[in-house]
Amino acid sequence: QVELVESGGGLVQAGGSLRLSCAASGLTFSSYAMGWFRQAPGKEREFVAVITRTGRMTYYEDSVKGRFSISRDNAKNTVYLQMNSLKPDDTAVYYCAAMETVYEYRGSSYYSAGINYNSWGQGTQVTVSS
Protein backbone atom coordinates (compact mmCIF):
# COMPACT_ATOMS: atom_id res chain seq x y z
CA GLN A 1 0.00 0.00 0.00
CA VAL A 2 1.43 3.32 -1.12
CA GLU A 3 1.65 5.99 1.53
CA LEU A 4 2.73 9.60 1.04
CA VAL A 5 3.28 11.79 4.07
CA GLU A 6 3.87 15.52 3.68
CA SER A 7 5.53 17.73 6.27
CA GLY A 8 7.05 21.16 6.56
CA GLY A 9 4.04 23.38 6.15
CA GLY A 10 3.31 26.30 8.43
CA LEU A 11 2.80 30.03 8.76
CA VAL A 12 5.33 32.36 7.17
CA GLN A 13 5.47 36.04 6.30
CA ALA A 14 5.47 37.19 2.71
CA GLY A 15 8.96 36.97 1.28
CA GLY A 16 9.86 34.06 3.52
CA SER A 17 10.71 30.45 2.72
CA LEU A 18 9.49 26.99 3.55
CA ARG A 19 10.67 23.53 2.57
CA LEU A 20 8.07 20.83 2.17
CA SER A 21 8.96 17.16 2.33
CA CYS A 22 7.04 14.12 1.19
CA ALA A 23 8.12 10.72 2.46
CA ALA A 24 6.93 7.79 0.36
CA SER A 25 6.56 4.16 1.34
CA GLY A 26 5.06 1.03 -0.15
CA LEU A 27 6.34 1.70 -3.65
CA THR A 28 9.42 1.47 -5.82
CA PHE A 29 10.16 5.15 -5.55
CA SER A 30 12.38 5.37 -8.62
CA SER A 31 9.51 4.12 -10.78
CA TYR A 32 7.41 7.16 -9.97
CA ALA A 33 7.36 10.72 -11.12
CA MET A 34 6.55 12.88 -8.11
CA GLY A 35 4.43 16.01 -8.16
CA TRP A 36 3.21 18.76 -5.90
CA PHE A 37 -0.27 20.25 -6.18
CA ARG A 38 -2.06 22.83 -4.08
CA GLN A 39 -5.60 23.84 -3.30
CA ALA A 40 -6.59 27.20 -1.89
CA PRO A 41 -9.95 27.74 -0.16
CA GLY A 42 -12.74 28.00 -2.70
CA LYS A 43 -10.45 27.15 -5.60
CA GLU A 44 -9.73 24.05 -7.63
CA ARG A 45 -6.64 22.00 -7.07
CA GLU A 46 -3.77 23.19 -9.24
CA PHE A 47 -0.48 21.76 -10.39
CA VAL A 48 2.66 23.26 -8.84
CA ALA A 49 5.67 21.19 -9.86
CA VAL A 50 6.81 17.74 -10.93
CA ILE A 51 10.08 15.86 -11.04
CA THR A 52 10.71 12.88 -13.25
CA ARG A 53 11.71 9.43 -12.06
CA THR A 54 15.43 10.04 -12.18
CA GLY A 55 15.23 13.69 -11.20
CA ARG A 56 16.76 14.80 -14.48
CA MET A 57 13.76 16.91 -15.51
CA THR A 58 11.45 19.24 -13.65
CA TYR A 59 8.40 21.29 -14.64
CA TYR A 60 6.73 24.17 -12.84
CA GLU A 61 3.51 26.08 -12.96
CA ASP A 62 4.22 29.53 -14.34
CA SER A 63 3.45 31.47 -11.15
CA VAL A 64 6.07 29.57 -9.12
CA LYS A 65 8.89 29.47 -11.67
CA GLY A 66 12.04 31.01 -10.26
CA ARG A 67 10.68 30.85 -6.70
CA PHE A 68 10.02 27.14 -6.08
CA SER A 69 12.37 24.23 -6.61
CA ILE A 70 11.46 20.54 -6.59
CA SER A 71 14.02 17.84 -5.87
CA ARG A 72 14.12 14.20 -4.84
CA ASP A 73 16.34 11.79 -3.00
CA ASN A 74 15.67 8.31 -4.34
CA ALA A 75 17.80 6.76 -1.59
CA LYS A 76 15.47 8.26 1.03
CA ASN A 77 12.21 7.87 -0.92
CA THR A 78 11.58 11.55 -0.40
CA VAL A 79 10.63 14.47 -2.59
CA TYR A 80 11.06 18.10 -1.57
CA LEU A 81 9.59 21.44 -2.52
CA GLN A 82 11.73 24.43 -1.62
CA MET A 83 9.55 27.53 -1.66
CA ASN A 84 11.20 30.95 -1.62
CA SER A 85 9.86 34.49 -1.94
CA LEU A 86 6.49 33.31 -0.77
CA LYS A 87 3.42 35.39 -1.49
CA PRO A 88 -0.02 35.46 0.14
CA ASP A 89 -1.38 33.90 -3.08
CA ASP A 90 0.71 30.81 -2.31
CA THR A 91 -1.51 30.09 0.70
CA ALA A 92 -3.05 26.65 0.20
CA VAL A 93 -2.98 23.04 1.26
CA TYR A 94 -0.08 21.42 -0.57
CA TYR A 95 -0.36 17.81 -1.69
CA CYS A 96 2.29 15.37 -2.77
CA ALA A 97 1.34 12.95 -5.56
CA ALA A 98 2.97 9.91 -7.15
CA MET A 99 2.68 8.84 -10.78
CA GLU A 100 3.83 5.35 -11.70
CA THR A 101 5.41 5.44 -15.13
CA VAL A 102 7.87 3.49 -17.25
CA TYR A 103 8.81 6.66 -19.10
CA GLU A 104 11.32 9.23 -18.01
CA TYR A 105 9.51 11.93 -19.99
CA ARG A 106 5.73 12.32 -20.36
CA GLY A 107 5.30 15.98 -21.26
CA SER A 108 4.32 18.95 -19.15
CA SER A 109 0.60 18.76 -19.92
CA TYR A 110 0.48 15.12 -18.83
CA TYR A 111 2.23 15.88 -15.57
CA SER A 112 -0.02 18.81 -14.74
CA ALA A 113 -3.21 16.70 -14.81
CA GLY A 114 -3.98 15.33 -11.38
CA ILE A 115 -5.95 12.43 -12.82
CA ASN A 116 -2.69 10.90 -14.05
CA TYR A 117 -1.35 10.42 -10.52
CA ASN A 118 -1.90 7.14 -8.69
CA SER A 119 -1.50 8.15 -5.07
CA TRP A 120 -1.89 11.27 -2.96
CA GLY A 121 -0.80 12.45 0.45
CA GLN A 122 -3.05 13.99 3.06
CA GLY A 123 -1.73 17.51 2.51
CA THR A 124 0.09 20.12 4.55
CA GLN A 125 -1.13 23.66 5.13
CA VAL A 126 0.98 26.60 3.98
CA THR A 127 -0.16 30.05 5.07
CA VAL A 128 1.61 33.19 3.90
CA SER A 129 0.74 36.38 5.74
CA SER A 130 1.05 39.81 4.16
The rounded distance between the terminal residues' Cα atoms is 40 Å
User: Helical percent range?
Assistant: under 10%
Number of helices: 1
User: Which structural class do the helices and strands define?
Assistant: mainly beta
Counted beta strands:
11
Mean pLDDT: 96
Radius of gyration from the alpha-carbon trace, in angstroms: 14 Å
Element pattern in H and E: EEEEEEEEEHEE
Q: Please describe the biggest sheet, giving its number of strands, its sense, and whether it closes into a barrel.
A: 7 strands, mixed
Percent of residues in beta strands?
A: over 45%
Dominant shape: globular
Tell me briefly what this model is.
With 130 residues, the chain is mainly β. The chain has one helix at 108-111, and strands spanning 3-7, 10-13, 18-25, 32-39, 46-51, 58-60, 68-73, 78-83, 92-100, 119-120, 124-129. It is 3% helix and 48% strand.
What do these coordinates show?
By secondary structure, the chain is mostly beta strands. 3% of the residues lie in helices and 48% in strands. It has one helix at residues 108-111; strands at 3-7, 10-13, 18-25, 32-39, 46-51, 58-60, 68-73, 78-83, 92-100, 119-120, 124-129. Strands 2, 4, 5, 6, 9, 10 and 11 form a seven-stranded mixed sheet that branches. Strand 7 (68-73) and strand 8 (78-83) form a beta hairpin. The radius of gyration is 14 Å and the shape is globular. The N and C termini lie far apart (40 Å).
